[in-house]
Each structure stands twice: as C-alpha cells, then as structure tokens.
C-alpha cells in the first residue's frame, strides 16, 4: 500500500487525498535510569548509545526510510535547539517542533499535534513514536506500517505490540484479540495489562497471545480528537486553548503556557487507549527496546568473548558480562562479573546488572540531597555551542566555552561577576561596551563587572576559549540579556 508523504506546510499532499501520514516524535522523557549519561539537561534520546546516530536521529530516520516527510517533534523548550541541530545533522529539514511549556505526559502532547494537524488535514494519519526507543530490525517496519495505516484510516486506534522475548516486568502488556475484519495483520485489543510481577509475566509468556505495549500508535488526527473528546475532555479543553493561543518563535511552535498548564498529566494509554472501542494491535517482531536501563543496553550492544560491553577508554581483565562505559577518565576493571560501570566527567555509577532498574532510586536520592549532578551535566549545551566547568572555588570559576562557526552569544551583562576570556583555538570578535575587539589564539580580553559584552565566532572552525569568572556570586541566573538571536528570556 502506498503511503502518502506529508507536506511540511501541513496541507494535504494532493486534492482528494485520504490523508497524509505524519511521523510524530515525542521527546519529553529524562531517562533517569540511564544516569549519569542521561540527565534532564541532556537525556538519553540525544546520545548515540547504539550506533553513530542518536536515538532521536534513529527515530526520525525511520520515517525517512518508510518514504515519509519531515516529522513533528514535541519537546520542552530547553531542548529545541538540540533537536533542530540533530535533525539537520542527518539531513532532515522542514520539521515542525512544538514546544511544551511544562511536561504533561503523552496525552496532552498528542492532543496538541492532532489539533494543529486537523486544522488543515483532519484525515492525516499520525504515527506516534517515542524519541528514545530502539529498533534492531528496521526493515520489517515498512510492511507493518502499511497494515497499520490501512486500519487507522478506517478509524482504528492502532498500537504496535512487540513480541515478548522474556517475562519482563518493566513493560505493560496487550492481550491480542480476534482479527480485525477487512485489514490483514491487525487484531482487536482484548485488554491492556499493567506492568505485571515476575510470576504473572512468566505466565503470560508461556500462555502466548500477549504482547509488549510499545507506546507506538497510528490514528487519524480527527479520530484521536474525537476519542479525547469522549474519554478525556478536560485534556482537550486545555490543549485546544493552548493551541488556539500558540505563537511562532523562529522555527518553533510555542503552546500557550497558561492554558497548557491546565491540562492533566496523563498518558494516551490511560486517557484513551484503555477505554476506546476502536483499539487495535499489530503483532510486531522489530527487535524493539525502550532502552530503559543499562542492563537493556548491555543486551542490545555487541559483546566480546567474555560477554563484556566496553565503550570509551576502558580496560578489562578477568571480568565477564559487564557493561563498562567511560566518557571521561580511563576505567580499569578487574575480577568482577555482571556489573554496570559508567564514568562521566563528574559522576561514576557502579551497579549490579540485576539492579539496573534501581538507578532511578539513586537519582531520586541525589535530587533529595540537592545535588545538581542529578539533573545537570557538567557540559551544558546552548544554541551557539556548549560550555563545561573545569574547576570552581571561593569567588572564582573556570569554564571551557566552545562556539560553533558563525554563532554568537547574547548581548549581555552581569551584576555580580567579572570575566576574563583567553582564546585557545580560533578567532573571536568581542563586543565590549560598544567597541569591537578581535581576539586571536593565545590572546585574551577582560570584561569588568557590568560591562555590556558579546562574543562572535566569525571563522570556519569552532572557537574555543577559557573563561575565568570572579565575583561574590557565579550563578547562571546572573545574566541580563539585552539582545539575543535565539529568543531566550
């Protein structure tokens, strides 16, 4: 079955079309079970954990592989430039990026996309995907997608049920019902089952006819709006108002904050899928994983002859079945079995693989203790590049700042700190109190407290500089932006 490409403008592909197919990527998770690599400031979907592409990029490329156009991505506003850049890196242009002012789970996010799309093409089929799942058998996706689109065009709420490979307690399950009349390969949903205990999971696996609930859906925009109206009207009322009062911010769509905050925090499963009379499921063997833990990554990754996964600067001896990753200093591991060891620049995780799901509890304890490492990386990404802390003491802080070619920081000033910039690679144009200064490699410039300043990389290579801050308060909120190319407050 041919699948119509979507036009990035949101209009129908051609007159009389029965509806376009639009990939929709939900990118709202923080992936705390993959801490310390995945954190709220830069969660797992933005990391290349299984291939040269990030999980977000792999998800977006699935749509391209199936002959579809640019996706709609729903994310929080802090990640908007990261997403735009990662899509650009894999050649995807024309994506619509919808910004959630607050996290409200999948039902409000999907409602927003459906309402926006329905304004111009209510028959469009939305292919809902999480940004952070992995599929190891992508070639099987196309035929299954065609079957699902056929059912969705008939008004079904279609989910993809993944063939279980083990009695996993971390997933919800779907009980497969009778074949859906008139659509090959699609079945009615008999029931949804919450995440089971180990005994129940083993029982369902032995019995057969149960599938993992992947959270991947297909439905028409007007169908899901009607079902939300029927089963979750409070979601639809709030989101409809947020969509009505949306604004454009550069290439981004901003939902109205006040209205969107009124939406309940609820998943599409609880809001609609478990109640609708039109639920259907496609049994799928796609090698799917939600990449929800370090143990899952160990299972998905290539291993050496001892069953170990070693990524980065890692040396192993007399160890078996371990997952060891270092994004920082050398990690030497000897005489251990079944461990997860993850090293970043500012944190180290050591866990038995059987307790990989408990990492989330460790993160909760870090948050309760007020540790910034729970949510923030040492490296912080910005629209112009990134910065990372090198050292910090009483009344001083040292950072490395990298500015991409052609990018510039906001025109700004500080009330509590002075700064000294030393260029170590590239060339900078620094505006200080209205005067421009060219600062070359191995040269420096001083920015006294209160000076209005801006940094531009005019070159073709990244600009790297060392920033030394001094003053009584060094927090990131001591920035008064006067002008900003990226519409940040």
UniProtKB/TrEMBL annotation:
Annotated Nucleotidyl transferase domain ranges read: 23-305
- Annotated MannoseP isomerase/GMP-like beta-helix domain ranges read 318-366
Q: Kindly state which keywords UniProt assigns to this record, in alphabetical order.
A: GTP-binding, Nucleotide-binding, Nucleotidyltransferase, Transferase
Superkingdom, natural source:
Bacteria
Translocase recorded as keyword: no
What Gene Ontology terms describe what this protein does at the molecular function level? Answer: GTP binding; mannose-1-phosphate guanylyltransferase (GTP) activity
The record's section on Gene3D superfamilies has: Jelly Rolls, Spore Coat Polysaccharide Biosynthesis Protein SpsA, Chain A
Pfam families named in the record: ManC_GMP_beta-helix, MannoseP_isomer, NTP_transferase
User: A GO BP term, please?
Assistant: polysaccharide biosynthetic process
Q: What is its EC number?
A: 2.7.7.13
**Catalytic reaction list:** alpha-D-mannose 1-phosphate + GTP + H(+) = GDP-alpha-D-mannose + diphosphate
Q: Where is the Mannose-6-phosphate isomerase type II C-terminal domain?
A: 370-484
Q: What's this protein's family per the entry?
A: Belongs to the mannose-6-phosphate isomerase type 2 family.
Identify this protein by name. Answer: mannose-1-phosphate guanylyltransferase
Q: Which organism is it from?
A: Novacetimonas maltaceti
